[in-house]
Each structure stands twice: as structure tokens, then as C-alpha cells.
Amino acid sequence: MKKQSRRDFIKVVGMSGSGLMLASFVPSYISAIKLQDEPKIFAPSVYLRIDSNGIVTITIHRTEMGQGVMTSLPMLVAEELEVDIKNIRVELADADKKYGNQSTGGSQSIRRNFDPLRKAGATAREMLITAAAIIWKVTPSDCKAENGFVTNKHTSEKINYGALVNAASKLPIPMDVKLKDPKDYKIIGKRIPRFDMDIKVTGAAKFGIDIVVPNMYYASIAHCPTFGGTVKSFDASKAKTINGVVDVVQVSQGIAVIAKSTWQAFKGKEALSIEWDLGKFANVDSGSIRDEMLKHISSEGTEMQSVGNVSQSIDGEKFVDAVYEVPFLAHAPMEPMNSVASYKNGKVELWSPSQNPQSGLTDVARALGIKEEDVTFHVTLVGGGFGRRLINDYAVEAAEISKASGKTVKLTWTREDDMRFGAYRPPSIHVFKGSVLENGSPLKFSHHVIAPSITAQRFNPNVPVKDSGLGEGSMNLQYSIPNIKISGTIVSTHIPLLWWRSVYNSQNPFATEAFMDELAFAANKDPFEFRRDILPKESRLGNVLEIAAEKSNWYKKLSNGEGKGIACFQGYGSYCAQVFEVSSDGKKYKINKVTAVIDCGTVVNPFIVESQLEGAIIFALSAAMKGEITIRNGGVVDKNYDTFQIMTYSETPTFDLHVVKNNLPVGGVGEVGVGAAAPGLCNALFSATGKRIRRLPIKLT
User: Fold this and answer.
1) Is the dihedral of CA 128, 134, 138, 140 positive or negative?
2) Cα 118 from Cα 101, distance rounded (Å)
3) Three-state DSSP class for residue 262
4) Which residues share a beta bridge with 451?
5) pTM
6) DSSP codes joined into one string, 316-341
7) Does domain 6-197 have CATH number 3.40.50.1910?
8) How far is CA 465 from CA 217, 300, 345, 448, 478, in A?
9) Residue 480: pLDDT band by 50, 70, 90 thresholds?
10) Which of 155, 384, 535, 605 meets the CB 3.0–4.6 Å disulfide criterion with 542?
11) Does domain 296-329+424-689 have CATH number 3.30.365.10?
12) What 8-state DSSP symbol labels residue 650?
């Protein structure tokens, strides 16, 4: 054990931004800092502290938006710390660089924190054991940690963690702690009930929309009906006559009405008289955007990946061509955008349901012309994100309104605001050319993706096509096909784009896996067997595919009007296969059952994995069955769930979920279920009706 002074220890504890900070040595150059001789808190990590009463508090630096990080992340710490998970308190972290990356997206929360949080718990455990050993005048190997106590193995004497806080805080820091063997896990892998279940069921949970602070007013904002439009002039006289309206201010994105209640703010906004400059895109609609993409349908695109030679023909190959298409989609979370902001004396404090709070710090500071250290950003619970809250436009608006009015305000977007003025999943067109041989094996696979690029629009308009995101979910397929070409064409659009749950993995795998079924049909082979035979032996993707076929009783004979479809997906370090069972009369259809199998490596909480998988599939099916944002006159037509519909309870199928058990590196879960859902459903509909669905949302007639 390499030793370190107590001052260096406190330096590391207080200032490091990594979950691995206890494994880092920081030279002592803070001698001027005054330290308490008897600290009452043992804080071996920015994520973990233990007080003298033995209370363990875990700070969650990822956003809780229904995916369960308030439960699964503490489980990692508790496992190594040797405490009862029921006795842990959980806090949500404010935005702060000391926590490292706080962005919550890409199914990264568990993947990125599995080792750091376990090491934080293990380091604290070893320091507590050492502290007890010193008190008992024995070696640390004579002691063990268990259930919040350190026990003397020889005398069975116990000391509560709280009683060891002071002693542990003075110890040198172990530079490399041993983590548990998976066979010794007591918490990881168990079905631990969600920590946030009770507060959500009882209504005690505080989402952004629930936040109330002293002397707060309420705000609503009028946005230009076209993207890129601006305010020419406005008349607020009628709005100010509305009962409860106290102010009207102009901010960067529109006109804000401030009132004594949310409803009064909404009514005041309706009474505004605004003349808009609709901008140069006022005549753009969905059709013109689609036409722009279709211009490239006969081109080759820019190569992103190539294997073999798709241009060379041989005798006996059977050609298959198809074009697939998906539309713009909104995120449409249940909780609309909202944020509370209080600007005073050059500083601002916010309470906001954000997936990317550190970016919020930067965005708000830039908008207000202040320093980031003058922004306090509290992260609340989130009522659905799906990628929408990775940008903080609504928090910026709240901060601007507070500064302009001099009031503390809660900005709440209406449902219509949320649907019409957000940022959207881009549309795409997929041109396929493939072939199979007489023996049923595939020979060629060519996929040309034509779509706007989120990366190009938000970060770099000159981004190479290969790095644009267009190839996500299509490049690096596991299927063994001798000749493969993946290409892309970026088409620009003025419609704001944003990551949507699983991003391009919600589009490319739909088209790819549906086209795989077309190749299987051309080869006169069973769709499951066609895939199985061209996947590497003993591959994890092949394994979940075979399990899905087995669990769904794939070969069971179907009645007229019934169909089965299969699809698989790999991404985020995980593997998923799904089998859909449907019935249809050729005009309408019903999804009867979905069998889904996931291999996400080491499973922290099976209950949460199953919930996430089922939720992701339902989310993807809502989009496949009904989802489409329509652009007209430069803006979004859809205003609410009546036209941008989601799946109903009566439409939801029975689920048969299976989680593969292993000790492989942990993979993501939240987005993995999306990729195979749409193609699995469309392949099942072809089985039932003989109709190929190549354009979403699904329309049988």
C-alpha cells in the first residue's frame, strides 16, 4: 500500500472529478487549507459519503428519467461497500464538472460507471476495515466488512461504519483495491425494487414540472410557427388585461408572458398579437424534404464500408432490390419541457429536468453573458427524455425570462409547444441492392442511406459521411456476406435535428433486418435459419437469435391470417433478438405476442433490464405503427397525441422476456430493444398478409 498524507487524501476527496479518484495520487500543494481534526463525514468519493450515524449517501450523477439509475448505480457501490441496499440514501447531483461526464444517453450510465462506482465502494470498505484493525490492534486480514459493520474475525466484536468515520478519514489511501469475484455478489444480479417506486406511486416525487420555489411566477413563451422565423413586432396590451398576467418580455426565441399561475400565463400568451418574420423556409414541407432525398436515390453515395465487390456479377445469382423509408419523429415525452430560473445580481439558479446538465451550465452562461461558475443547475427527476432533454433550450429560455423580468419564473411549455418547437429524429431513405445464390446463401448486400445528419447540423457541416452517423446500425454487420457496400448521402434540412432513442439504430436496423427477410424469401429459406446460417458460430448475436426462436416456438404451425417475424440487433455492447406473432385480415392487424431475448453482459438488476427492454419495444412500436411528424409551411403540423399517437394499452402485446446470464462486460439496455422491434413486426406482417412494409408508419392499405 502506497502511503499518502491526510492532507493529500482530503485534496483527492474534495477536488477529484473521477469515480476512480481514490486510485489517483495527487501531490500536496494545498497546505493553506484548514482541516478539521475530527471530521464527521467520511467522503471517499464525490459519489459516496458516510456520516457518524452510519448513514450512507450515494450521489447519483446521471439523470433519472425512468430507466432506473437511482437504483442500479447505488447497487454497484453497495455491493463493494458491504452495506444493506435498504439503508442507503440517494441524492441527485447538481451539474458539476467534478462528477465527470453527467450526460445521460447512449445507454451509458451502467456501462461507464460499473467499474468506477464499484471501486469507490471497495476503497471505502478497505479504509473502514483498516480503521477498525488499528482500533483492535490487529491486521486488516483479521477483519471483515459486512452489512454496515466491520467484524473482528477472532472475537466477533463489531464496529458500525459510523463509529469509524473519523479514523477512516485519517488513513492513507489504498492505491489498488481488489473487487469482488462475481460469484460472491450479494446485490448485483438481484431483483432489487426501485428506490423511486414509492415516491412516484404516491406522487411525492419531484419532477421539473413539480418544482416550486419562494416568490415564483409562471411563464409561457410564444415561438415563431416556422423554424428560423423571428419576431417583427408585438402588441402585449390584450395579454396584460388577462387576470394574473404581470409582465410580458421578449427573449431570443420569442415573447414570454409572466403570470401568477401557469394557466394564466397560457391564456396571456394566447392573447398576444405578434407579427412574425417567417423566414426563408416558410414554404418548406414534408413533401419537398422527401423530394430532396429522392433526388439521390439513383446515386451511389459516399462509401462508408466495403467488403469484396458488389459490382461483379456471377452466373446464377438472384437479384433483390428495395427502397425503405422512415419519417421525422418527435420525442413526445409525457412531461413537457419546463425549467425554473432565478436570476439575481449576475448569477442564476435553475431547477431543470435535463439529460445533459453540464451542457446546460455552458448554454445558460453563454446566453446570459455570465461565467459558468455563476450558474447553479439543479437536476430534477425527468418525466421521459428519449434524447430530447440532451439540449437545454427550455432552460436557456427560463433563464432569459428571469433576467429580462427580474423575477423568479417557472417556464412551462404547453403540449403543443413541445410537439411543434422541439428537435426531431431525421427522416431517411434506404436503397438496397442484394443477391442470393441458388444454394440459398447471400452473395451481395448494398445499402445506401440518404438522410440529414444530426452531427452535420449540430457540430460540423463538413463532417465526412463515414463519421456523420448515417452508417450507425448498418456498418459492421455480423452477417457473413462475401460482398458488402454501405454508403451514405447527407441531405441538409432546416428542421432542427436531435438524437432520438437509439438514434440511427432506430432506422437502419429496421431497413436492414426487413431487407434480410426479403433476401431470405428470394433464397426460399426460413428467415430464422437464413440469419442463423450467416452469423458466426457461437456469436452472442446468433445465441440470442436461437434462444428467441426456441422460446417463441418458431416452427409452430400458424393458422390463416397469422404470422411470425424475427429480427435481431447489436449495439451499445449488447445483443437482442425479437420474435413477433401477429394476426391480420389484410386491413387491420394485432400484435399478439413478442418474445424478446437480450444479452447485455453482466446484469446489475434483472427487474430493471426487463422493464427497460419492454419499454423500449413499446416505444419503438408506437413509432413504427403510428409515428410521423408532418412539416407544412415551414413548421410542424402535429400538436398533440391525437395526431402524433402512441400505443394504447389495448394494442400492447403479451411479452415473453429472457435475459441471458453471464459475467461478460456490462452492456447498455435502454436503447437496445428499439432496433429489432420495427423490422420484427413488419416481417411478421409479411408472414401473415404477404405485404411488404417498406415505409413507416405502417399502413396495410
Assistant:
1) positive
2) 17
3) helix
4) 490
5) 0.93
6) T-EEEEEEEEE--B----SSPPEEEE
7) no
8) 47, 13, 46, 12, 21
9) very high
10) 535
11) yes
12) G
